Amino acid sequence: MSSLNEKKPLIKKLKNKYRLTISNEATFDEVLSIRLSRLNVFTVTGLFSVLLIVLVTLLIAFTPLREYIPGYPDGEMRRNIENNDILVDSLILELEKRDRFFQGVRNIVEGNDFDNVVQSASDSIVDPKYKNLSFTRTESDSLFRLDHEEDEKYNLTLEDAPKSRGLSNTHFFSPIKGMISNHFDSKSQHYGTDIVGGVNERISSVLDGTVIFSEWTLNTGYVIQIQHSNNLLSVYKHNSELLKKAGEHVKAGEAIALLGNSGELTSGPHLHFELWHNGQPLNPEDYIKF
């Protein structure tokens, strides 16, 4: 019983000092002597273990050594993952554009309206900022209009150009004023005239008519087609914005789109303008002065 009572508490046992001595076996000279306790040994061992774990973790996390861990992707694999993610995102956008294009064609064939064509806010055929536009006429604006109308009064058509049958009395409004970069050429199947202009410059309807197509296409971007009287059809391609929807009636000279550089088959901001009569392409330069 007396021996049990003499047992010291555990904390005191941990604090008991011990001496670790290293001696020369031949001469018994003391080479090294260290005083230790169990608590010191446990503390130093624990701190060393924690420090070792932290160093190994940092080494793996911030050095290329992590690539040697089984299952961890290397640099090339991560680049491939990022590139594939970008390609998939682009493919989704192209598929959405294609679906909208086919839906627009289906609506035209079936004679439906375009309310069921789902469009994102960033890809709308009519930008919301143009829906509530209001214009006021000032004195300087009126003088400019008067001078411009007088200047264009006798320049809407080319009187000496050959006219297709039934179009002799038709006067066309120029869709845009600019430099012609590519002429009409039926042999190369270029059934229109390319006119270069400034980005977002207004494009006007050449005659009174009804919009029959106003949609995005993959090759020619934003396209608008207008059906006129006398079986005339005008086509405007590569626009940046479309200001009219299918079914709307427009007047000659009314703004219908903004010039742009949309679509895959384009090399810069320009308008590709086509004129068709009874299903046959006409050379726009024979009828309109650009």
- The shape, in one word, is rod-shaped
Individual helix count:
5
Give the termini separation.
121 Å
The class by helix and strand makeup works out as alpha+beta
Assess the beta-strand content as a share of residues.
Answer: 15-25%
Helix content: 25-40%
* Sequence of secondary-structure elements: HHEEHHHEEEEEEEEEE
Poorly predicted regions: 116-126, 155-165
Radius of gyration: 41 Å
- Number of distinct beta strands: 12
The overall pLDDT, averaged over residues, is 80
Provide a brief overview of the structure.
The protein has about 290 residues and is α+β, with helices and mostly antiparallel strands. The protein contains five helices and twelve strands.
Q: What this model shows, in words?
A:
A hairpin with a 3-residue loop joins strand 6 and strand 7 (221-228). The chain has helices at 2-5, 10-15, 38-62, 75-110, 139-152; strands at 17-23, 30-37, 179-182, 193-196, 202-204, 209-217, 221-228, 232-242, 249-250, 255-259, 270-277, 280-282. The model is unreliable at 116-126 and 155-165 (pLDDT under 50). With 290 residues, it is of the alpha+beta class. 18% of the residues are buried. It has five helices and twelve strands. The strands form two sheets. Strands 3, 4, 5, 6, 7, 8, 9, 10, 11 and 12 form a ten-stranded antiparallel β-sheet that branches.
